[in-house]
Structure formats: structure tokens, C-alpha cells
Design brief:
This protein is mostly beta strands.
């Protein structure tokens, strides 16, 4: 069943630097992490010059090594703090610590999809954003082994061996952060609709009733936001959970639990299935929408948190 379009920032799918680049796969900013990445000798050795939001000139000593993830703040921002679950827009330059050469950049075009701090798919790099602030320029040094093609790395502070190894360096400009969950005012539940309860993180739990699903698509506003109204020209930033309306319901997708974090969803006609598009198009940032969607013989219940709009 088609679900949602997603775009993973190139930074987060890069694991090979020596030969080639290989793909892998509450209100407010988010919950406070239990610990924040700390600076160390490797991250302190990195310098970067140039305007914030523009590609910097990065200097990394040849042969840089580290045994764990280190984060130094090269430029202090004054914006909101990035917590666990916060989607953030970044620009980055990626450098091979063994040679000091630039391996990849984000392009500095403002089109890099958000990375969700703490989301497991992003491993050590997602962890590195926790406790940063919007406006920060970060120097992140981490062992190459911390970037895993399996996507199962949890961003721990040390490499699996505990020994120093070649470092990967990312100079990251944190340009913007979205809310980690829908922040709108709660609304009355719709008659005959599935019940929705929220975990402390904001992740929805959906209970399917015993009766049959409605014959046509349905939309119900669970939270009413007051942010930007989305149009067909926009790309929305959302989190979602989808559950089948069936006697034995199952979760068909959830950006809250699959490690991916926030998703980007283009709202132009034909980009996503109409039922999901209708749950976002014309709604506002801060809304949480329950959508009953019929598609290819299946009926699914989506709960969509609308967190923001990508810059055009």
C-alpha cells in the first residue's frame, strides 16, 4: 500500500568515504535528551570559516582519529534547543578525517530534508544534534564505524572496539527546528471514529472500534493549530501513524516508531494518495488530523501531525 513520500538527507545515508559514497538507508522543540554529546580533542581540532548557512572552508588535521562521537560548537546560536524527536533543517559539509578532504556537502540550497534528532535511522549523527540550538554551527567528529549501513547504530559515544579509528567530520549549520508534535488545541472526537491516545512523546495510539469502517473517506480534526495553511505548492513536514481498520488491526506505517522521524510530503496532485493528501492540504501547521482512507481495497486510519512547511 502506498504510504508517504520520504526524503532522507544525503548526509545521513553516507557511510563510505575512502573510495565512494554508498547509500544506506509535548509542545515545543521536543523532549530533553538524557545526555548531550560532548566536545573532545577531535572535534576541537576542526575549524570552519565563512558565513553561517553558506558552504564553509573546513580545516581538519590529516589523520584525524576518534574513539567516539564528539561535538563542539563553533558558532553559538540563540534559537530554540533541539530535543529528542525534534526535526531540524541543516546544511552540512562532510569531510574525511583521514585525508582532510571534503567528501560531500548538502549543496547549501535550502532543500535538504529535515533530520529528526534522536531518530534511530540517523544513528550517531542524529544523536549529535541533541542539545544543539538553532543558529549553531557544529563540528561533529565520529568514528567511521558509527555510520552503519544497517541503520541500527544508536549513536553511542564510543566505537564498537573502543579504539581510536579514522574520523568522519561533519560541519553542520542548524538553520531551523520544527515542533516535535502537533501543538494545536485539542478538539472533540468524531462520532464513531477510532479512539486516539497520545504517549508522552506525542506518538499516537489508535484503537479501532468493533464496527465496520465508513464507506467513504473521513477526516476529523484532533488538534487545531494556528500556523501556516498548506497549499498544493507546499511540501509539508509531518509525523504519522497508520493502522488498518480491520477485525485484527495492524500498524502499516509509523514515522514515530520506524526510526525515520519526520517526513517531507509534497502536496502537488499525484505525489501521494488522495486520502492522505486531503488530510494535510488546506490544514494548518499545528493541526493533528485523523483520516480514514480507502485505497486498493484496504481501509487505513492515519493520524497525521502537521509540524511545518519546507522552504520553497
Amino acid at each position: 500500500m502506498p504510504v508517504l513520500h520520504r526524503t532522507i538527507p544525503a548526509l545521513l545515508v553516507t557511510i563510505g568515504l575512502a573510495a565512494s559514497l554508498t547509500a544506506c538507508a509535548a509542545s515545543g522543540a521536543g523532549s530533553a535528551p538524557s545526555s548531550c554529546p560532548q566536545p573532545g580533542a577531535a572535534s576541537r581540532a576542526v575549524t570552519a570559516s565563512g558565513a553561517f548557512g553558506k558552504e564553509p572552508e573546513v580545516n581538519v588535521p590529516d589523520g584525524l582519529t576518534t574513539s567516539g562521537t564528539q561535538v563542539s560548537v563553533l558558532r553559538q546560536g540563540s534559537g530554540r534547543e533541539i530535543g529528542d524527536g525534534t526535526p531540524a533543517l541543516i546544511e552540512y559539509t562532510l569531510v574525511d578525517g583521514s585525508t582532510g578532504k571534503v567528501a560531500q556537502t548538502s549543496g547549501y540550497s535550502g532543500q535538504t530534508a529535515p533530520i529528526t534528532a534522536g531518530a534511530s535511522n540517523y544513528g550517531a549523527l542524529g544523536k549529535a544534534l541533541e542539545c544543539a540550538h538553532v543558529g549553531d554551527r557544529l563540528a561533529v567528529a565520529l568514528p567511521k564505524s558509527a555510520l552503519s549501513s544497517s541503520g541500527t547504530d544508536t549513536g553511542s559515544s564510543s566505537s564498537s572496539s573502543g579504539k581510536a579509528e579514522d574520523a568522519v567530520v561533519a560541519v553542520i549549520d542548524v538553520e531551523r527546528a520544527f515542533d516535535s508534535r502537533a501543538t494545536g488545541t485539542p478538539q472533540l472526537a468524531g462520532d464513531g471514529m477510532p479512539a486516539v491516545v497520545l504517549a508522552p512523546s506525542g506518538a499516537p495510539g489508535i484503537t479501532i472500534p468493533s464496527w465496520s469502517a465508513p464507506k467513504s473517506d473521513e477526516l476529523h480534526l484532533l488538534r487545531k493549530g494556528d500556523g501556516t495553511k498548506l497549499t498544493a505548492k507546499d511540501t509539508a513536514v509531518i509525523k504519522y501513524t497508520a493502522v488498518t481498520w480491520a477485525a485484527d488491526p495492524s500498524v502499516t506505517g509509523s514515522s514515530w516508531t520506524d526510526g525515520s522521524g519526520a517526513q517531507t510530503v509534497p502536496l502537488a496532485k499525484g505525489q501521494i494518495i488522495d486520502g492522505v493528501r486531503n488530510a494535510i492540504l488546506g490544514h494548518r501547521v499545528g493541526d493533528q488530523v485523523l483520516a480514514v482512507v480507502h485505497n486498493q481495497g484496504s481501509t487505513d486510519v492515519y493520524v497525521v501531525d502537521i509540524l511545518g512547511v519546507m522552504p520553497r
